[in-house]
Amino acid sequence: MSDLLRDLHPQALRIAGALRLRGEKVAVADGATGGLIAASLLTVPGALDFFVGGGVVYSLRARDVLFALPREAYRGMRGASEDYAALQARAIRNNFGAEWGLAESGSVGGSNHPTGAPAGRSVAAIAGPDGFERTAPIETASDDRIANMADFTRNALDLLERSLAEA
Predict the structure, then answer these.
(1) Counting Cβ atoms within 10 Å, is residue 13 exposed (0-12), middle (13-18) or buried (19+)?
(2) Residues β-bridged to residue 126
(3) Residue of 68, 18, 26, 21 lying closest to 50 (CA atoms)
(4) Cα–Cα distance, 162 to 137 (Å, whole number)
(5) Comparing C-alpha atoms, which of 127, 53, 51 is closest to residue 84?
(6) Per the confidence metrics, is the pTM higher than 0.85?
(7) 84-131: per-residue pLDDT in tens?
């Protein structure tokens, strides 16, 4: 994974620069990415300037602890969907007191997803200041777990970088 982090480091530097320039911070909810989104951002020295924390949401218990939302908040939603990822992005932002929340929900493959999402499907979502929200679904059509984790991480970081430029 160190090669992946080295590849993503230039983008993490650009994201860090944009957040520092704005005086804003981000919180991250990694799902199928298993912590790679946060790890990528933490390759930047002095990350405390722009990164407040987050967690890997890989179980219902982790979801309940990190987001502190009632189970009813998820009614009618499925994992690896736009509404589910957007809810998580808002919740991680709010619970960590950041201006930006970035969440990823997906199915990396190698096993069945609990909600039936197909392997290779992921949705990244961003929630920012003043109601700014975007989602970015990706479909790799692959069951390659490691390649999907890398692709899902790139998709989420691309969404964050684009959002910082748009907002």
Answers:
(1) middle
(2) 102, 134
(3) 26
(4) 14
(5) 127
(6) yes
(7) 999 999 999 999 999 999 999 998 887 666 676 778 999 999 999 999
